[in-house]
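Why do we care about 3D structure at all? Because function follows from shape, and shape follows, mostly, from sequence. That is the central idea of this module. The next example makes it concrete: a single protein chain, its amino acid sequence, and then its structure expressed as tokens.
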Amino acid sequence: MKLLSIAVPCYNSAAYMEKCVDSLAIGGEDVEILVVNDGSSDNTAEIADMLEKKYPGIVRAIHQENKGHGGAVNTGLENATGSYFKVVDSDDKVKASAYMTILDTLRKNMEAEEGERIDLLISNFVYDKEGASHRKVMEYRKTLPVGRIFSWEETGRFKKGEYILMHSVIYRTQLLRDGGMRLPEHCFYVDNIYVFNPMPYVKNMYYLDVNFYYYFIGRNDQSVNEEVMIRRLDQQARVNQIMIDYFSDGVRSGLIEKNSHLYKYMYNYLEIITTITSVLAIRSGDAEKMAIKDEVWKYLKDKDDGLYRKMRRGPFGALVHLPGKSGRAVVKGAYSVARKIFGFN
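And the structure:
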């Protein structure tokens, strides 16, 4: 069994995937890199096979018909043999020194009793934005204990805009499987589900204050490009609704204990995702997109009226429902400020 499985979803990734895999392969024999060719039409398949030959016993090329990013992550998890699991996008890379620290931490942790092993390892990531003179680092040292195992009740208060994203996380593989992790196929923005749904099952966390993951943003065709997100707002809304269902059902079943640190974290995360859906609709200025926004809020109300009222009365809920042109102008201005502060696309 490997220590760490890394899934690298690839769709028409020929221009950059080799650089990504090269940065991961220095992990050596403790690591397996699952290069999932998701029905590409360029020469991604040939490069994946070449990388498997270049790094025997480390890289495994997997070819499938197109299922989208979520389907590629599912395939990676199904084929993983490592004790731990991470997803790395094919246009991103990792920092070697931080990588070695993470692998060493995981090796030492495997010596612990099974019930004391890390469920979730968290590290920093860097917004590697094209053309930017300053790189924004997403770090958690003011919120999470550093260099030791901790529980949800030992976490501090996450600031607005400070969330645990896909780039930050390494999960225990069996935790994902036991929690039934399966992402929707042919849908963008499912990374939010990936870092949302497993959280109630996470008991032991460990935070390493190292800048491990370099998250590239800046290509015009990238899924997080604002224009692309607006075009795909229906998919953002679909993910939003899935998260509403999961959170509401989890609270009702007792999986998510109300007023716990876990509850507060997941509520705040759901609130920001709902706000993003709403703001993108407002920024579009398009009646069809505004209808998608209204449908998400109606979905929330129909699903859980108490949750709807709490979110609707909160500062973000009030902001995205400001009336008229002046209200929309305020929302657009606030979004622009937030984008500069937090460094997202």
